């Protein structure tokens, strides 16, 4: 069984992925040279730290095995391992997605399975 990994996208970024079938990631991803992903245990904190007051988001799930070798788990500053994708995000690889309401202060309406 493959482990899921997650990407938080703005509504505009999600619409772009859904319409064109592929994106290079967010401006931060492009700057860093890889797409920042999170595990289920990391994604709520990622939203809190990096998406405060960004408006509605879409939580997008990918299965790690479908992303293949371009997916690498690398240590963050605190030593925890984060999934990084050295490839584009493809709509065909999305397994599930959820719209998230911005509740303010970096809090979002995550499904219960993430809380």
Summarize the structure in words:
This protein is α+β, with helices and mostly antiparallel strands and 115 residues long. It has a single domain (4-107), classed as Protein of unknown function DUF952 (ADP-ribosylation fold, Alpha-Beta Barrel). The chain is built from four helices and ten strands. The protein has a three-stranded antiparallel beta sheet with strand order 1-4-8. The protein is globular. The protein starts with a strand and ends in a 7-residue tail after the last strand.
Secondary structure elements and their pairing?
Blueprint (H helix, E strand, L loop, with lengths): L3 E7 H10 L1 E2 L3 H6 L2 E2 L6 H8 L6 E7 H4 L3 E5 L5 E5 L3 E2 L3 E7 L1 E3 L2 E2 L7
Task: Pick out its properties.
10 strands, about 120 residues, alpha+beta, single chain, 4 helices, ADP-ribosylation fold
CATH class: Alpha Beta
Which runs of at least 5 residues are low in confidence (pLDDT < 50)? none
First-to-last CA distance: 22 Å
Given the helix and strand composition, which structural class is it? alpha+beta
**SSE topology string:** EHEHEHEHEEEEEE
Number of helices: 4
Summarize the structure.
By secondary structure, this protein is an alpha+beta fold. Helix content is 24%, strand content 37%. It has a single domain (4-107), classed as Protein of unknown function DUF952 (ADP-ribosylation fold, Alpha-Beta Barrel).
